[in-house]
Write a structure and sequence with these properties.
By secondary structure, the protein is an alpha/beta fold. It has a domain at about 15-110: Udp-n-acetylmuramoylalanyl-d-glutamate--2,6- Diaminopimelate Ligase, Chain: A, domain 1. The protein has 4 helices and 38 strands. Strands 9-12-15-18-23-26-29-32-35-37-38 form an 11-stranded mixed sheet. It has a 10-stranded parallel sheet with strand order 7-10-13-16-19-24-27-30-33-36, with no helix packed on it. The radius of gyration is 25 Å and the shape is flat. The termini are far apart. It catalyses: a UDP-3-O-[(3R)-3-hydroxyacyl]-alpha-D-glucosamine + a (3R)-hydroxyacyl-[ACP] = a UDP-2-N,3-O-bis[(3R)-3-hydroxyacyl]-alpha-D-glucosamine + holo-[ACP] + H(+). Catalyzes the N-acylation of UDP-3-O-acylglucosamine using 3-hydroxyacyl-ACP as the acyl donor. Is involved in the biosynthesis of lipid A, a phosphorylated glycolipid that anchors the lipopolysaccharide to the outer membrane of the cell. InterPro entries: Hexapep (IPR001451), Hexapep_transf_CS (IPR018357), LpxD (IPR007691), Trimer_LpxA-like_sf (IPR011004), UDP_GlcNAc_AcTrfase_non-rep (IPR020573).
């Protein structure tokens, strides 16, 4: 990767032998495993000291022209690399590439202090009744309220607000301008810039004489190893908790309403909106701009397609899409039927 300004430290040269060990990749018997790489890049741009990967067959034509020092690749495509590029053969090249990136660029794994702060910035406001373990970084302008607890190794970004009695575990990163109230946060959680956690859910008793606000007295519980993208909002529960399960990854600009329960290792893509009291099972996924109405149950491993309008429960393992959403196989059959009708009518008109 070439740039006049690069925001992560150039890694020390890494022998291909080390990369093979990290990833479990297989190498040709005559490969020069003492050869080193000191960067990464896409197949088309990687230089002779860089590592590349191929995970999508759409880019397979680029293999023949790459000048990368080595490439993480499946056995199917390994023979298409030029002789100057060492194939590192593995079953999941993208996952292997992630392992290498984590080793070579550890600082990119989670947000750090934007000010180079060590300990507490003098301009941060930390209440006397807050409890911070050793090795907590608090950037300029951050506010930490009474009774808040923050574990060691955590970073509180510039102008972030941590409300009263909020609990944050160890090795967490709370991004600039994030706000957390009424929340319990586990270990190794990443909340990116502008995240809003624990504000009121949208609860009103509607009526002809006006809409009465319903007090929201629940919490947000975020379990270990969750990552939440920039400007996402997660409302606290009304009378029970909003829960984000262990290992779940949430994209930017997602809205999660009160009482929602998201299972472990779910993936929620940008601009998804999940209405109140809906439950997602473990490893469930939603595509971009999916809209889920309230009080639904999305089964374990189920997938909801991009721009879906979901108004029904989804059984475990099923894929639903469309608006209103339905099983993908039914949607495809309907579209095929409509295309046949259009072609038939076109022939009649001609």
């Amino acid at each position: 990767m070439s740039s006049t300004t690069f925001f992560f430290r150039q890694p020390d040269p890494v022998p291909l032998a080390d990369i093979a060990v990290w990833t479990g990749a297989q190498t040709p018997p005559d490969a020069d495993l003492a050869r080193t790489v000191d960067g990464v890049g896409p197949l088309s741009d990687a230089g002779p000291r860089s590592l590349a990967f191929l995970d999508n067959a759409r880019y397979a034509d680029t293999l023949a022209t790459t000048v990368a020092a080595a490439c993480l690749v499946t056995q199917r495509f390994a023979s298409r690399l030029p002789a100057t590029t060492v194939p590192l053969v593995c079953a999941e090249p993208y996952r292997a590439f992630a392992i290498v990136l984590a080793r070579m660029y550890p600082a990119a794994l989670r947000p750090a202090s934007v000010f180079g702060t060590v300990g507490r910035s003098p301009s941060a406001l930390v209440h006397a009744e807050a409890r911070l373990e050793a090795d907590v970084t608090v950037d300029p302008g951050a506010v930490i309220g009474p009774g808040a607890e923050i574990g060691s190794g955590s970073v509180i970004g510039a102008n972030a607000v941590i409300g009263p009695n909020v609990k944050i575990g160890r090795d967490c990163s709370i991004g600039p301008h994030a706000t957390l109230v009424h929340a319990l946060v586990g270990n190794r959680v990443i909340l990116h810039a502008g995240v809003r956690i624990g504000q009121d859910g949208f609860g009103f008793a509607l009526g002809g004489r006006g809409h009465a606000k319903v007090a929201q007295i629940g919490r947000v519980v975020i379990q270990d190893d969750v990552e939440v993208g920039a400007n996402t909002t997660i409302d606290r529960g009304s009378v029970r908790d909003t829960v984000i399960g262990e290992g779940t990854k949430i994209d930017n600009l997602v809205q999660i309403a009160h009482n929602v329960v998201i299972g472990r290792h779910c993936v929620i893509v940008s601009q998804t909106g999940i209405s109140g009291s809906t439950t997602l099972g473990d490893f469930a996924m939603t595509g971009g701009q999916a809209g889920l109405t309230g009080h639904l149950t999305i089964g374990t491993g189920a997938q909801v397609g991009a721009k879906a309008g979901l108004m029904s429960d989804v059984p475990a393992g099923e894929r639903w899409a469309g608006s209103p959403a339905q099983p993908v196989r039914d949607l495809f059959r309907q579209e095929a039927y409509i295309r046949r009708l259009v072609r038939r009518d076109s022939k009649r008109e001609s």
